[in-house]
Design a protein that fits this description.
Mean pLDDT: 91
CATH architecture of the largest domain: 3-Layer(aba) Sandwich
CATH topology of the largest domain: Rossmann fold
Helix content: 10-25%
Low-confidence stretches: 1-23
Radius of gyration: 26 Å
CATH class of the largest domain: Alpha Beta
Number of domains: 2
Strand order of the largest sheet: 11-10-9-8-16-15-14-13-12
Strand content: 35-45%
Structural class: alpha+beta
Order of helices and strands: HHHEHEHEEHEEEEEEEEEEEE
Shape: elongated
Number of strands: 16
CATH superfamily of the largest domain: Vaccinia Virus protein VP39
Distance between the termini: 87 Å
Number of helices: 6
Largest sheet: 9 strands, antiparallel
């Protein structure tokens, strides 16, 4: 009788461990729902929990052009649905969630959806965790929280894509918007910092100076070439890609398309009706 008693005790102990482990052994989402059942509108640290509709999640990730090469951070991950959706696209995804019960639930869903190799949900504060390695940031917060995060986001690598459900970034205008069932998705692309005086020289030896001003992705300025100053035409900045046009000292319209790398811009200068000439610029 004693061996049976020992076996039964061991079985009960193992069963207890399986229940405690929860998410690690979840086979489907219904098992996860037994761990914790959140309610829509329940209060959190800074926001109430309201899940983003699946269709809008897909639109946000499509706007950000998420690929398997991306690292996606979802700020305020909730039940993990955005991070999981990114993982199903092949991206590496991390969800940051403050509520420990939601973290357990979301990680259980990650296991149940079969994306544990790509996705993890961590317990943390979005204002303290480091998400600087992200190539894509997603969030569904509140306007004041977006504004609080804005300085951190603007210091991220140029070209980082940021999507938000419903709420904006104040006077930082979105690069793209989409609406589904009266809900809005916003996309911003972190712009390079290009304000200042730039000295350019093309492969033919022509030199010119450009003074650039900037407010987020909106840029303007003037160029001095051949001793004559004139405003730039069609100046645009998208991430680290810059473009503008001007007339050279012979009256020929030239268009510069380049990539910003810190205090350098490298690219091509194209004359109307002509080919490309390499050009490089440095900030004073």
């Amino acid at each position: 009788m004693r061996p049976r008693l020992l076996l039964r005790t061991a079985t009960i102990a193992v069963a207890g461990l399986l229940v405690a482990a929860g998410s690690a052994f979840a086979k489907d989402r219904s098992e996860c729902d037994r761990i914790y059942k959140p309610s829509v509108g329940q209060p959190g640290k800074d926001v109430v929990w309201v899940p983003t509709p699946d269709e809008l999640v897909q639109r946000m990730l499509a706007m950000a052009k998420v690929t398997p090469k991306d690292i996606v951070y979802d700020l305020g991950a909730g039940d993990g649905k955005i991070a999981i959706a990114a993982g199903k696209l092949g991206a590496t995804a991390v969800g940051i969630e403050y509520n420990p019960d939601m973290v357990k639930l979301a990680q259980c869903y990650v296991e149940a959806e079969g994306v544990a190799g790509k996705v993890k949900i961590i317990h943390g504060d979005i204002f303290k965790e480091d998400f600087s390695r992200a190539t894509v940031v997603t969030m569904y917060l509140l306007p004041e929280l977006n504004l609080k995060l804005r300085p951190t986001i603007l210091n991220m690598r140029p070209g980082t894509r940021v999507t938000s459900h419903q709420f904006t970034m104040g006077d930082w205008e979105a690069d793209e918007t989409a609406e589904i069932d009266y809900r809005t998705a916003y996309l911003w692309i972190v712009p390079a910092k290009i304000e200042g005086q730039w000295n350019f020289r093309d492969a033919t030896g022509q030199q010119f100076t450009v003074a650039l001003t900037q407010k987020y992705q909106k840029i303007s300025g003037d160029v001095t070439v051949g001793g004559r100053k004139q405003p730039l035409v069609g100046a645009t900045l998208r991430g680290d890609e810059i473009r503008f046009a001007f007339n050279d000292d012979k009256g020929v319209t030239r268009t510069l398309t380049g990539t910003v790398r810190g205090n350098e811009i490298n690219g091509a200068l194209r004359a109307a009706g002509g080919g490309d000439v390499k050009v490089s610029g440095t900030r004073r």
